[in-house]
Design goal:
It is elongated and about 70 Å long. It has a 4-stranded antiparallel sheet, with helices on one face. Strands 1-2 form a two-stranded antiparallel ribbon. It has 178 residues and is an alpha+beta fold. The chain contains 7 helices and 6 strands; from the N terminus they run ββαααααββββαα. The longest helix has 17 residues. Helix 2 runs parallel beside helix 3. This is DUF2924 domain-containing protein. Pfam families: DUF2924.
């Protein structure tokens, strides 16, 4: 955006710059004038300002090429949003699973929740920061807790996940040596 001391030189730039300062009612009025439709009632002010900015730029500079728009529509039509939202990461154990790992003479318990992994009262997005906090070195969390095997064979089976919310089988600290 090129601006002089007096503000933006381009009328579109000036209009875009003014949008964040408008009230919700002013944005709705601007939307109705621009699209000849009422603004979606559930949109917050910030989002309506962004949609207006997009619509103004599309009208000034053009939108997506038709081929791209059709491709995006086709791709969006192939995807069922409910299926996408309901799908969970197959690598992640289900909520309620507990991991118990003995390391350096201390027993560590990790519970899987819908929000993440709970360890020592703290919620973590993955197992790796927990493994690092326990060992003091960088570890692949799933490997540390026995969800993945090393490339070489092991003398002891990995930690077992118990899907019925019972505590899993413990492994000895000797396996934790990097």
């Amino acid at each position: 955006m090129t601006a002089s001391n007096d503000g933006p030189a381009d009328p579109l730039e000036a209009e875009l710059a003014a949008l964040p300062g408008l009230s919700l009612d002013e944005l709705r009025l601007r939307w109705r004038r621009l699209t000849r439709r009422p603004a979606p009632p559930s949109l917050r002010r910030e989002m309506l300002a962004r949609f207006l900015a997009y619509e103004l730029q599309v009208r000034a500079y053009g939108g997506l090429p038709r081929e791209i728009a059709r491709l995006l529509d086709r791709l969006a039509g192939d995807a069922d949003p409910a299926e996408h939202l309901a799908r969970r990461d197959e690598r992640r154990p289900p909520s309620g699973t507990q991991f118990v790992r003995e390391y350096d003479g201390k027993v560590h318990r990790v519970a899987v929740t819908d929000a993440g992994f709970l360890w020592n009262g703290s919620l973590h997005a993955s197992l790796s920061p927990i493994a690092e906090a326990i060992t003091g070195t960088r570890w692949n969390g799933p490997r540390f807790f026995g969800l993945r095997e090393k490339a070489s064979s092991r003398s002891e089976p990995p930690v077992q996940q118990d899907q019925s919310r019972k505590v899993s089988q413990q492994r000895r600290s000797q396996d934790a040596m990097p």
